[in-house]
Amino acid sequence: MSIDMHCHLDLYPDPFKVAEECKRRGTYVLSVTTTPKAWDGTCKLADGSRRIRTALGLHPQLAHQRSNELELFDTLLPKTKYVGEIGLDGGKGFKEHWDVQLKVLRHMLSSVNHVGGRIMTIHSRGAASAVLEEIKGISGIPMLHWFTGTSTQLRKAIDQGCWFSVGPAMLCTKKGREAVSMIPKSRILTETDGPFAKFKSGVLMPWDSAIATKLISEVWGCPQEIATEILKDNLRNLANTK
Ligand code: MN
User: Fold this and answer.
1) pLDDT tens readout for residues 95-125
2) CA 98 / ligand 1 centre spacing (Å)
3) Where do the domains of the chain lie, and which CATH numbers do they carry?
4) Separation of 84 CA from ligand 1 center, angstroms?
5) Neighbouring residues of the ion ligand 1, judged by CB less than 5 Å
C-alpha cells in the first residue's frame, strides 16, 4: 500500500497501463492535471477506482500559455474536491511570466474560495513566500508539494496550516530531510511527482511513493509499518475534511 498525493498520471507514455497497475496494487493516487483541458481525459484514468482521484489544475509554468482556460477551470471546479497543480514558479525561464502567473493563481484561488474551499496541491519553486501570501485566508486545505523553501518559510507555512507532500527526490537531500523533521507528523503525505521526478536515474512510478514512506520512517526513527499507518491516517483525515 502506498500513497502518491501528487502525480501526473496522464503524462506517462502509457497512462492507461500505469493506471491499471495502480489499481492492481491498490495505490492511492491524486492524479493532478496541468491544464483544465486535460481534465476529461485524465478523469478517464480513474474510472473503476475509488483510490485514484483527479485534481483540476493549471500549472504555473503554463500560465502564460493557458490563461484562456480559466473559464473552463471555473466550469469544472464544482465537479471536484481536489485542485492542482497550481502555484507560482520563480525559477529560471518562468520568472519573466510572473505577472500572468499571479493573475492566473489569484483567479483560481478566488474561485476556490467562492465554492467553499478545496484540497489544493501547490507548486512553489522559487516562490515560497509569494505563495504563502496568496493562499492566506483562502478556504480549503493547501498542500505544498516538493517544498524547497527556507526553514523560516517552512515554519510560516506550518503556522498557516499547510500540509506537505514529499517524495523520494526531496528526501534525497539533507534539506529535504530536515524539512520533514520539522513538519508535524499529522500533516505530511507522500508523493512522487512522476513522471517528471526521478530517483536514482529512474522515472518514478506512483507506487514508488513507498520509497518516500521508507525514507520518512528513517527521519522519524520508527519502523516503516508505523510510518505507513500514520500516513494512511493522514490521508483519511484529509479526505474527510469538510
Ligand atoms: Mn508536479
Assistant:
1) 999 999 999 999 999 999 999 999 999 999 9
2) 18
3) 3-192+227-239 (3.20.20.140)
4) 9
5) 85, 193
